[in-house]
Design a protein that fits this description.
It is found in: Cell membrane. By secondary structure, this protein is mainly alpha-helical. It has 13 helices and no strands. The chain folds into two domains: 72 residues, no CATH class; 162 residues, MetI-like (MetI-like fold), CATH 1.10.3720.10.
């Protein structure tokens, strides 16, 4: 297990370095920064500010300094928000973003698992057909469209939940549900497919012939073997939550990192753009890493295969 963990950790570090490097150089290849394009500032003041951000140094020197600060947890200072620390700003908005993101995954996994299992056990019935329709709709409908529909019907039309703001936990439910649509569809589709395949295996028929109850067969054998492949989709689904939350936060007026990210793009605040991009890249890579470890715990064959490599 230790060798498996270390190998995955090594991949994670290399992947993160590649993402950081690409992000850094892409941002510097853009035609100018907000400071360089600011025509209202006198040339002396503009050059002084550029120097304070280290933009007057050679590119490779800037890259080295950026990596050095990054290792220390310093993502630089915002160019627009009064020079405040990018790290502090991200951490300030992260709790709201994390809450709706984690809830979105939880809602999606619970509802998706239930739909997938029921659909597999009721193959060919209206329940199975309904699960298929939900899966297709979840893939086809973007999170911002789901957010608009939920806010209109559940918030405005029916008045069940608040639409916009961030005053209590209730304000996080609709955004989380909007983000969960894609997770629900993917989990339902994967779990149903794997459950159907497992239920048709010979050892399942043998267990049934031995007189085991259907509930025991499903819980002890079918669900465990079906969930192993389904767990692998949790990592990729995380990126959908991360990217979708940016727009959803704007729709529901949530004071999270999505708001900072959109504002930084409109104001060309490249330090903020890089900071949020790298921060969420770290979260995504860590999520994939944890899913890999979980996969190895549930299915020891993965660890054995990794050790042989």
């Amino acid at each position: 297990m230790l060798k498996y963990t270390l190998s995955r950790l090594g991949y994670m570090v290399v992947t993160l370095w590649v993402i950081v490097t690409i992000t850094f150089f892409l941002m510097h290849l853009l035609p100018g920064t907000q400071l360089k394009n600011e025509e209202k500032l006198p040339p002396e003041i503009r050059e002084q500010i550029i120097a304070s951000y280290g933009l007057d140094k050679p590119l490779m020197v800037q890259y080295g300094l950026f990596l050095e600060k990054l290792v220390q947890g310093d993502l630089g200072n915002s160019m627009n928000l009064d020079g405040r620390s990018v790290t502090d700003l991200i951490l300030q908005g992260f709790p709201a973003s994390a809450l709706i993101g984690i809830q979105g995954v939880i809602f999606g996994v619970i509802i998706g698992l239930a739909l997938g299992i029921i659909a597999a056990l009721r193959r060919g019935t209206w329940v199975d057909n309904l699960s298929t329709v939900i899966a297709i709709a979840g893939v086809s409908v973007p999170s911002f469209v789901a957010a608009g529909l939920l806010s209109f019907w559940v918030g405005v039309k029916w008045g069940i939940l608040p639409v916009a703001g961030w005053e209590s936990w209730e304000y996080s439910i609709l955004p989380s549900l909007a983000l969960s649509f894609f997770v629900i569809s993917q989990m339902a589709r994967y779990v149903r497919s794997e459950m159907v395949e497992v239920l048709d295996q010979d050892y399942m028929k043998t267990a049934k012939a031995k007189g085991l109850k259907r509930s025991a067969i499903v819980v002890r054998h079918a669900m465990r073997n079906a969930l192993i492949p389904a767990i692998t989709v949790l990592g990729p689904l995380t990126i959908n939550i991360i990217t979708g939350s940016v727009v959803v936060e704007q729709i529901f007026n949530i004071p999270g990192d999505g708001k900072y990210f959109v504002d930084s793009i409109t104001t060309n605040d490249y330090t903020m753009i890089m900071g949020i991009t790298i921060f969420y890249a770290i979260l995504f890579i860590v999520a994939i890493f944890l899913v890999d470890l979980l996969y190895g715990v549930i299915d020891p064959r993965i660890r054995i295969a990794s050790a042989k490599e």
